Amino acid sequence: MSNNFEPLRSDEVVSVDNSLKILVNHPTFKTHELTEALITLIKNADRIFQADKVDEKMKWGGEGITAQVLRYGANGWQKGKVRISLEFCPDEPEVQKTSTQNQAETNEPESPLDDIRRMQG
Q1: HEC readout, 42-89
Q2: Neighbours of 16 (CB within 10 A)
């Protein structure tokens, strides 16, 4: 499997093995359900977070929080925002299907004389 992860949209559906489910009570869920469960967990984590900081912590799931990231190929730390995102990397790349009619329209003629024959026909 490659590292071509892409963020999932909030309405996309995820299915995991029943033994691997977290925060959501069922193994098949929309991405936003996991995000909402995580936000609820953060809101209810008074023991972990100071009560006056919960609103700031909630930005992890939305607009992002201020951070610095050290990335491969970059010259030092880069300032910006980070947020929690559910991502997916397919085992096999999706093959795009094209119709044979489309291919015929975009391909070069088989013979240079084909164009002349069409004009005379």
Answers
A1: HHCCCCCCCHHHHHHHHHHHCCCEEEEEECCCCCCEEEEEECCCCEEC
A2: 14
Cα separation, 17 vs 96, in Å, equals 28
| Helix/strand/coil for 93 | coil
pTM of the prediction?
A: 0.55
**Domain residue limits, the chain:** 6-90
Which amino acid type is present at position 68? Q
Token duo for residue 86:
């559910």
Q: Does the pLDDT value for residue 102 go beyond 80?
A: no
Token pair 């799931």 in the structure block, residue: 61
CA 114 from centroid of its chain's CA atoms: 46
User: Could you tell me which of 37, 35, 39 has the C-alpha nearest to residue 11?
Assistant: 35
In this structure, the strands spanning 77-82 and 65-70 are: antiparallel
